[in-house]
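One example copied in:
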Amino acid sequence: MTTRTFWCEAIALNSATGHTHWLGAHATSTPRLALRWIHTRALAIRDQVDTPERWPINAWLRDDREHQ
């Protein structure tokens, strides 16, 4: 029996410098659990950044089509 693993990463890009910042990673066994981890991590990241940087996170969190 083959086991599938879904690898999730949260990475931020500093658009001014081009540097990336690793914010976390997690392995799951299903796409649903992967999406749940990404959603939970996005909420935590949103609470730690300034208002303008929250806008793309909020847009993704509200976009139900992205979560299907």
